[in-house]
Amino acid sequence: MDWKLELVFVPVSDVDRAKDFYVNKVGFNADYDERPMEGIRFVQLTPPGSGCSIAIGEGLNDAPPGTAPSLQLVVSDIQAAHRQLKDNGVDVSDIDVQDWGHFIYFADPDGNKWAVQYIPGRPNG
């Protein structure tokens, strides 16, 4: 039996602002945005090529905005990822080169923290 992590909830204070950030600045795909019932708004966003999405919305969980655990994306080209985020207006760190990988860091408007990793020598990062 496979156990696949396919959805992570990211608590935000303003769903439209967060959706705009993730779609138009970071480049996630907007998969779903519905109100299945009163008091619930479910927005699913997926990084390009990822098998795991994030969910933002209203009435999904009780976590305060900005308190998602540190989240990490993996890319095949850290320079291109850095350039894309910077060009789209994301406040992104400089590239941090470590023995085990190269990293950049950013946060969404609520302070949810993200790392982007490139692993040299590994196909597709």
**Total E-strand runs:** 8
The percentage of residues in β strands lies in 35-45%
- What is the number of helical segments per DSSP (H or I, 4+ residues)? 2
Low-confidence stretches: none
Radius of gyration: 15 Å
Give the CA-CA distance, first to last residue: 27 Å
- The average pLDDT score comes to 96
Instruction: List SSEs in N-to-C order.
Output: EHEEEEHEEE
Structural class: alpha/beta
Report helical residue fraction: 10-25%
Query: Strand order, biggest sheet?
Result: 1-4-3-2
- Outline type: globular
Describe this protein's structure:
This protein is 18% helix and 36% strand. With 125 residues, it is α/β, with parallel strands linked by helices. The longest helix is centred in the first third of the chain and has 12 residues, at 15-26.
Structure summarized in a few sentences:
By secondary structure, this protein is an alpha/beta fold. The chain has two helices and eight strands, in the order βαββββαβββ.
Q: What layout of secondary structure does this protein have?
A:
Layout: E1 7-9, H1 15-26, E2 29-37, E3 40-46, E4 53-58, E5 71-74, H2 78-87, E6 96-98, E7 101-107, E8 113-118
